[in-house]
Amino acid sequence: MRTRTRTWSGAAVRRAAGAAVLAAVVGLASAGCSSGGTRGGGTEPSGAIAAARAKAPSPAGEGELVVSYTEGLTAADRESEAFLRRNEALEAVAAYVNSRVALPYDVPVDAKSCGTTDAYWDPTARAITFCYELLEQVEPAFDDSPAGLVGLTQGVVVHELGHGLIAMNGLPAGEDEEEAVDQLTAVLLTTGDDDKEFVTGIVDAWGVPAREDARSGTRTAFADDHAVDGARFHAWACWVYGSDPAGYQDLVSPAVLPEKRAEGCRKAYTKVAATWNKALEPYLK
Questions:
Q1: In degrees, to the nearest 5, what angle opens at C-alpha 88 toward C-alphas 196 and 109?
Q2: Where in the sequence does UniProt note compositional bias of the Gly residues kind (predicted)?
Q3: What are the residue ranges spanned by the domains of the chain?
């Protein structure tokens, strides 16, 4: 039986204002035609997972994120698969991570039909599963912004990798692993990053569910303990902005990071980075 950390739940959240600009990154999210193959049930690993298990951990940190697709089981799933392939969303975020992080072994990113709205780090398989159903649930929020849907997809993968880095390397998570992952990913995304549009696109896309909550006055199903709700989103956006206020100036806006909140972000990031830079240093290229 599969074991997993926490799960994502999806909901048809309404489209919010704000553009996710990812022009410099080839589609960060979704695409293509189906690849054939089987779903890979709950007890049998997919080919990518089996290959990763067979590879011994490398003390030199030569592992990489390895993307694979299993053919969607429904027409809707196959449409999501095609979107992911066509835009090379998963491939783009894998390339981004592989250029920065020294993983101890190959980590599969397995896109597949799951029968539920989900995405998760599987500590037994040492793999990230991205379910086509998740894309189907959040798509209405990005009806006019495929780039935003790509950004959200990539943010999900990076977040799940954060759980994986904590598990694989025994990094400190404290009492609240979700907050630890938020901090870790903010530092990871901004360390040695010259392509601000990649990170800006993820931040903007993740703000859509948070802005929906603020506008409606209710908590959407998407904003569970594994998604970024309003308070967590603004803290995360603040850390990213605080890493380079000039480079991330575009994040300062009423919809993403209010100007008053932005004033203290440099100090907030410095505090977070002091902890995570040291913890991440052995695993960064």
A1: 95
A2: 34-44
A3: 47-283
